[in-house]
Batch of 2 targets.
Target 1
Amino acid sequence: PRAEAQIRALIDDWARAMRAKDVDGVMAHYAPDAVTFDLAPPLISTGADARGLQAWFSTWQSPLGYEIRDLNITAGDEVAFCHSLNRLSGTKTDGERADIWFRLTLGLRRIGGEWRIAHQHESVPFYMDGSYRAAVDLKP
């Protein structure tokens, strides 16, 4: 229960930093050698990419909407994983409105006594009707 509470607090703080577009606040929760599979290209990113995150944040007007629903955490002594449905919403700097639900899976490691995100995987399902369109219109 203690590890789960610590991880839940980490994820809550990480989400607050996302909403505030606080690059340092987001990056503080990652392991230095974190691997991420984000919604945007490339297929894989390694290491904390503060410049990439800042560039992405700069494409959004404030505030940025970031909601976590149905967070499920499984934690051992040194590793943990969790999954949730997340909602990203807001207005891009060009005025386009965005509102998308996606799936998030995090793998965490305890490093120096602190939990850090070591693996992040974001995804949306796609339609299996031959169009292979991302199913970004789904809602929980």
Note: The mean pLDDT is 94.
Target 2
Amino acid sequence: MGTSLKDQALEILQKHHIGVMATVSNGKPHSSYMTFAHKQFTLYTVTPKEAEKVEALRKNPHTHILYGYENEELSQTFLEIEGTVSEVQDDEMKERVLSKLHPKYAKDAAAMLLLKIEPIRMRFMNKSGDNREEVTV
């Protein structure tokens, strides 16, 4: 018996922690590589409080994330996640995300803002046999 789509999605979330997060700033799309942690299907990331994406997300809290692709092969499965972003206070989760950052990008926790991404839609991309299989979260 195969694993459920939810289990497969959670496996990708557990195996990887880097994704590309898109926002809209001044009416134009902008993408950034981000480091994530998760609780079930809810993602968390940190960004400097003065980052342009903070103001962009305050104006438009919607995001699109590509998660789990490592360019190993063209048919590799990864997740496409549409979500809503909010700023949250959770020191434990903030430290969890900060611990995953490359030291070059890790700043003092007080200088960083924790973002919570609640998924609206999640799909598998490049999954063998079905390119866009939806995960109900």
Note: The chain is about 20% helix and 45% strand.
